[in-house]
Write a structure and sequence with these properties.
Layout (H helix, E strand, L loop, with lengths): L1 H31 L16 H39 L9 H6 L2
């Protein structure tokens, strides 16, 4: 059960981090472009190709880096939790079928 809760918490935090990243990108875009709003749809023919490419690259890189950072942090936390579980006598890890069958 704790594993599902961790997965849900991880997903929610990743979505929140992505939303915050997009807000920051919007602000950076406005500052860098003299108050111009970022393109809502870079594929729109009314958006200049240069703007569409720059926006796509910036937003793609920023969101990917945030997601990578979050994934690495979650993996590090899970690794630490597993190390703690190894140090605690009688504590079983999730998915350890042998430990479940041998446990009283």
């Amino acid at each position: 059960m704790a594993g599902k809760a961790q997965n849900v918490a991880g997903l929610v935090s990743m979505l929140a981090a992505t939303a915050v990243t997009k807000k920051v990108l919007d602000r950076v875009w406005r500052l860098g472009s003299g108050g111009k709003t970022p393109p809502n749809d870079p594929a729109d023919p009314d958006v200049q190709l240069r703007e569409a490419v720059v926006w796509s690259v910036l937003s793609g890189v920023a969101v990917s880096l945030v997601r990578l950072g979050m994934a690495r942090r979650m993996a590090r936390t899970e690794r630490r939790d597993n190390r703690v579980a190894e140090l605690v006598p009688g504590k079983r890890e999730r998915g350890d079928k042998a430990a479940k069958t041998l446990a009283p």
